[in-house]
From TrEMBL:
SMART domains: WD40 (SM00320). GO terms for biological process: developmental pigmentation. Gene3D superfamilies: YVTN repeat-like/Quinoprotein amine dehydrogenase. InterPro entries: Beta-prop_HPS5-like, WD40/YVTN_repeat-like_dom_sf, WD40_repeat_dom_sf, WD40_rpt. Pfam families: Beta-prop_HPS5. Residues 96-270 form the HPS5-like beta-propeller domain. This is HPS5-like beta-propeller domain-containing protein. PANTHER family: BLOC-2 COMPLEX MEMBER HPS5, RUBY-EYE2-LIKE PROTEIN. It comes from the Eukaryota. One of its GO terms (cellular component) is cytoplasm. Coiled coil: none annotated.
Amino acid sequence: MDRPSSSTPATSGEVQPVPTHFLTELFTLDHLMVTSSSSKRSRLTCIAVSPHFLFLGTSTGGVSAYSRYTSARKRINSPSGPYHFINTKDGPVSTLTCIAVSPHFLFLGTSTGGVSAYSRYTSARKRINSPSGPYHFINTKDGPVSTLCVNSQEGLVAVGNDSGRVHIVSLTTSSPSPTIQTLTRDTRKLDKVTSLVWSDDSKKLYSGHANGVVMAHHLGAKSPFRTACSVVATFTEGEIVQLDISGSQLLVSTQLATYVYDVEEKTTFQTQLYSYGNLHFTTTFLSPID
């Protein structure tokens, strides 16, 4: 882990916490198959983490949710089993490709372009241990879903596809079904979407692509579907592994290096260069509460 450092000096007697970042190696997901009782034909395909739970998706359409803490708030080092299991019944024709989790919802992307939204709680704020089915299903009709990202208000879900296109799903419309809109139609200069991140105010969405391009999608003030997109930067070290944001600082992880891009000053500087062969690393900002 990198030693935390601050680019903002603190005055005498003042402690000013600022976000920093750390590096973590991306291992195979197979070692997370802790106590799975599923078939040997099932393999882990995606993972998502919330403050209290770990969600694992498999090639046969199953999603297991493991609690990270006991009722006494003690961290669980070796879970005995999932606290609930969802069978999406997607396999073998459709495979789970990605998971996104928010405080109230669980979103699952599939290899056939579908996105299922599951509610994690009842209207009485009671946790649902075994959802009977998704409360919403969205079909992007655009090939495999490669990544998902929910905004902080949980009203907008960004969907990235292998085609390079980015879709936005609105869950706050008056219509009983969600509304979907394509943000990037011309994908001649784009590749598979590998990472998505919302700005703090949800007025911008940043997408990273397999060809090293980072795009900024500017959402309209009155309608999230009135958008304009622009290329933020292009990196030559391979695909964008992960994006993160804190204020005006956009953290960009490629296969070989980490950069910080200032969206206001439009400047970029490199913070870390990797030289570990084929290993992939990601970076993320840490808030003071972390």
